[in-house]
Amino acid sequence: MLTEFRPDRPASEADSALRCAFQAEETARKCAVLWFADILERRLFRELGYSSMQQYARRALGFSESRVSDFMHLARKLDKLPAVKAALPEIGYTKARQIVRVASPRTAGDLVEAARTTGRRELAKKVRRVVKRARKTPAAELFAVAESESESELAAEVPVRLGLEFSPEQHARWEALWERLKKTGVTGSREDVLLKALACKLEDISNTETTASTETASRLAVPPVQIHVYECPTCGAMETNGKPLGPADAERIRCDAAISTPTGRNTTSIPPRTRRLVLARDRHRCQAPGCSHTKFLEIHHRDPRTQGGTNAPSNLITLCSSCHRLWHSNHVRE
After folding, report:
1. Is 252 helix (H, G, I), strand (E, B) or coil?
2. C-alpha distance from residue 151 to each of 110, 111, 236 (Å)
3. Angle, CA 111 vertex, CA 107 and CA 114 arms, to 5°
4. What's the rounded Cα separation, in Å, for the pair 57 and 48?
5. Coil, strand or helix at 299
6. 3-state secondary structure string, 63-105?
7. What is the pLDDT, as a whole number, of residue 299?
8. H or E element at residue 303
9. Greatest CA span in the chain, whole angstroms?
10. 286: which of 3, 70, 240, 320 fits an S-S bond (Cβ 3.0–4.6 Å)?
């Protein structure tokens, strides 16, 4: 029960009232985030007469632009991190905000457990160390630091933040395009949708420039977009563009990659002919249940090669990068 403010109260009474107010504030924040996420997920803002969650938050709730951004970010992260969302009533709003800065679906459980056993300041310090390690430590060194093994593993899973600056008109077009995509049934995160749109644009350009059937078939032997990944020959850690890759992404890349060594000839994880055969068999579509994406396709080994799996077509299946990552996140090597 909140105590109404009254001036000139004794120290003990003022202290008790302040503590009670802070506790009520924390409880209110937890409930507010969960209700906000529920309205966003079920798109209830439309039933309330608003075209977007941002409009609802600004006009109905009186949020500032920064507060809208903060709540939208946290709500979307909670949707991707069910472990954090389930623990929110227990760990609180402030700790949840810290956790989502560095958590992935695979590491969220460990961070929630850390939030249960440490205070806010200790958790904030841990998150800052993880962020600093992810930004500045090379992958080989990152995985070699035995005394900070848990924080090293967390650092390898920290998402890379990318900022875009839009003019008001460009931002309006972005929101309008996103709304139209959702109405057509497009699913997935904004990041995946944006990457797939860029892939479509690149494919259109390639199809315009290349018409010879032999060259088109050759392009299908390898992924349409390639990234360069460095693997440490000593510890096996991987990095790309100076950023370390987590174990799940490392295993995913080992499934379907072109391999270059300083002394040997270039090879591929899967022979190009076999890759073309599997893609054709699967109709160039992701074979994960409920998914039919046709962009960013990768070949996955049902039985890992580390456990005796081969490159026989019967052991291979086509997955999009998102489904492939999810599979390895759920089956990452201990």
Report:
1. helix
2. 11, 10, 18
3. 145
4. 11
5. strand
6. CCHHHHHHHHHHHHHHHHCHHHHHHHHHHCHHHHHHHCCCCCC
7. 92
8. none
9. 87
10. 320
**Token pair for 224:** 């349409």
What is the Cα 197 distance to its own chain's centre? Answer: 18
Between CA 153 and CA 77 the distance in angstroms is 20
Report the distance separating Cα 239 and Cα 229, nearest Å.
6
Which tokens belong to 68? 């809208």
Q: What is the pLDDT of residue 136?
A: 58
CA atoms of 325 and 334, how far apart (whole Å):
16
The alpha carbon of 177 is separated from its chain's Cα centroid by a whole number of angstroms, namely: 22
Contacts of 254 (CB under 8 A, 6+ apart): 269, 305
Strands 267-268 and 316-320: unpaired
Q: Are 101 and 84 in contact (CB under 8 A)?
A: no
- Domain parsing of the chain, residue ranges: 11-120, 230-330
Cβ atoms of 148 and 252 closer than 8 Å: no
Query: What is the model's pLDDT at position 195?
Result: 77
Q: Output phi, psi for 258, to 5 deg.
A: -95, 130
- Helix, strand, coil abundance in the chain, percent, nearest 5: 60, 5, 35
Q: Are strands 297-301 and 267-268 parallel, antiparallel or unpaired?
A: unpaired
Phi, then psi, of 292 in degrees rounded to 5 = -135, 30
HSE-CB for 57 with a 13 A CA cutoff: 22
| CA distance linking residue 72 with residue 91, whole number of Å | 19
What is the distance between the alpha carbons of residues 14 and 16, in angstroms, rounded to a whole number?
6
How far is it, in rounded angstroms, from Cα 223 to Cα 221?
Answer: 7
Report the run of H or E that residue 225 belongs to, with start and end: none
pLDDT of residue 317: 93
Structural Rg of the chain based on CA atoms: 24
**Cα 126 to Cα 88, 96, 139, 176, 189, distances in angstroms:** 19, 13, 19, 39, 28
Residues of the chain falling short of pLDDT 70: 1-2, 134-161, 163, 167-170, 172, 185-188, 203-225, 332-334
